[in-house]
C-alpha cells in the first residue's frame, strides 16, 4: 500500500453544507456540546434553518417508544415514594434503555401526554427527555369565578374530579414554528356558581413557549353539547397544530362515555368530532391515541380490535379503518406512547 505524504498541520476544509448534514445525525444531547467549539458553530446550531432540518430529520430516524412503568417496589426519593420508572424502546433494534427522569416526574402522579417534537407535557411541567431538563409553566389567569372555586378546592395543576378539571395539552404550531400549551379549566354547574352562565364555566388559555410567558385567554366556548357534561381530558394527541382531546364525560353511568374534541392552535377554536364506527361513545374503550402517517389514530372498541385513522376532520369528520400491525402490547398498555 502506498503511503500518502502530506502535512498533518494543514487544516482540512469542510463545506458548511456538509458540516450541517453531519451535525444533523448527532444525538441532540451530544449536539449541544458542539456549541462550545466556536461562536460560528453555536450560531449554526441555534439557527432556525438548522433547527428545522434537525426537527424534520428526527422523524426519519425510526420510531421509538417512551414507556412509563409503575414502580412496584417501595422506594423512597427525597422523602417521597417513587411511583414510576421511564424507559426508551427502539422498535428497530428492540433495545430498551432506562431513561433518567427528574424526581418530580418519578414521584408525582400525572397524565403522560404524547411527545410533541421531542418535548413532553406533564401537567404544568414541560419535560425534554433527551436533555433531561424541565420547565415549570407560569400560573394561569382564570376568571374570577373559576379562580374562587379553584382556590377553595386548593386544586393542583392537572388535578380533576367530577366537579372540576384542570388540564394541559402541548402542541406545535408549524406555521410559526412555536410550541404552544393549551390549558382548559372546567367547573361543574353545581359548584355554587348558579348565577354564572354555562359559557363561563369553562376557561381556555394558550401559552407560547419562549415568548412573554403570559397565558392568553382564547375567549372561545365549548360546544354547547359539552357545556354541562364535560368531565376531563382523558388523553390527547397533537398533530400539525391541532390538539385532539379524548374527553371523559361527567355522566352517571357504570361504563365510561367519551367525546373527541379538537382545538386548532392557529385559529383558536373548538370542533366536536364523531367517534369512529358511528358509536355514541358509551362503553367504547379507547386504548391508544397517536399519530400514524401524519393523521390522528385511535385503537377503539371493547377489545381494541380496530385501528381508525381520521382522514378528514372537516364537515363532521371522516374515519377509515387502517390495516396497521400494532404490537399487542400497544393495545393493552396505555402508558406506551410514540416519540
UniProtKB/TrEMBL annotation:
<dbReference type="Pfam" id="PF00646">
    <property type="entry name" value="F-box"/>
</dbReference>
<dbReference type="Pfam" id="PF08268">
    <property type="entry name" value="FBA_3"/>
</dbReference>
<dbReference type="InterPro" id="IPR001810">
    <property type="entry name" value="F-box_dom"/>
</dbReference>
<dbReference type="InterPro" id="IPR013187">
    <property type="entry name" value="F-box-assoc_dom_typ3"/>
</dbReference>
<feature type="domain" description="F-box">
    <location>
        <begin position="14"/>
        <end position="54"/>
    </location>
</feature>
<dbReference type="InterPro" id="IPR017451">
    <property type="entry name" value="F-box-assoc_interact_dom"/>
</dbReference>
<protein>
    <submittedName>
        <fullName>F-box protein At3g23960</fullName>
    </submittedName>
</protein>
<dbReference type="InterPro" id="IPR036047">
    <property type="entry name" value="F-box-like_dom_sf"/>
</dbReference>
Amino acid at each position: 500500500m502506498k503511503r500518502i505524504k502530506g502535512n498533518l498541520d494543514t487544516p482540512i476544509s469542510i463545506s458548511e453544507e456538509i458540516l450541517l448534514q453531519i451535525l444533523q445525525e448527532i444525538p441532540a444531547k451530544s449536539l449541544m456540546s458542539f456549541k462550545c467549539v466556536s461562536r460560528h458553530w453555536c450560531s449554526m446550531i441555534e439557527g432556525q434553518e438548522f433547527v428545522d432540518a434537525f426537527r424534520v430529520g428526527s422523524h426519519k430516524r425510526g420510531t421509538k417508544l417512551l414507556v412509563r412503568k409503575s414502580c412496584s417496589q417501595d422506594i423512597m426519593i427525597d422523602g417521597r415514594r417513587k411511583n414510576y420508572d421511564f424507559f426508551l424502546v427502539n422498535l428497530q433494534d428492540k433495545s430498551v434503555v432506562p431513561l433518567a427522569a427528574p424526581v418530580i416526574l418519578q414521584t408525582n402522579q400525572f397524565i403522560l401526554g404524547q411527545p410533541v417534537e421531542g418535548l413532553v407535557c406533564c401537567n404544568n411541567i414541560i419535560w425534554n427527555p433527551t436533555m433531561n431538563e424541565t420547565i415549570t409553566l407560569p400560573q394561569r389567569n382564570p376568571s374570577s369565578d373559576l379562580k374562587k372555586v379553584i382556590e377553595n378546592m386548593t386544586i393542583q395543576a392537572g388535578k380533576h374530579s367530577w366537579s372540576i378539571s384542570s388540564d394541559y395539552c402541548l402542541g406545535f404550531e408549524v406555521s410559526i414554528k412555536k410550541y404552544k400549551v393549551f390549558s382548559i379549566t372546567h367547573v361543574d354547574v353545581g359548584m355554587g356558581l348558579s348565577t354564572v352562565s354555562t359559557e363561563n364555566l369553562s376557561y381556555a388559555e394558550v401559552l407560547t413557549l419562549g415568548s412573554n410567558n403570559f397565558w392568553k385567554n382564547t375567549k372561545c366556548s365549548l360546544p354547547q353539547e359539552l357545556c354541562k357534561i364535560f368531565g376531563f381530558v382523558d388523553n390527547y394527541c397533537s398533530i400539525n397544530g391541532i390538539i385532539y382531546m379524548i374527553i371523559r364525560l361527567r355522566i352517571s353511568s357504570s361504563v365510561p362515555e367519551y367525546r373527541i374534541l379538537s382545538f386548532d392552535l392557529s385559529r383558536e377554536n373548538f370542533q366536536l368530532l364523531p367517534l369512529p364506527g358511528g358509536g355514541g361513545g358509551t362503553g367504547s374503550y379507547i386504548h391508544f391515541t397517536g399519530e400514524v402517517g401524519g393523521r390522528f389514530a385511535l385503537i377503539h372498541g371493547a377489545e381494541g380490535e380496530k385501528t381508525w385513522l381520521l382522514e378528514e376532520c372537516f364537515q363532521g369528520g371522516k374515519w377509515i379503518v387502517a390495516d396497521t400491525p400494532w404490537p399487542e402490547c400497544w393495545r393493552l398498555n396505555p402508558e406506551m406512547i410514540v416519540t
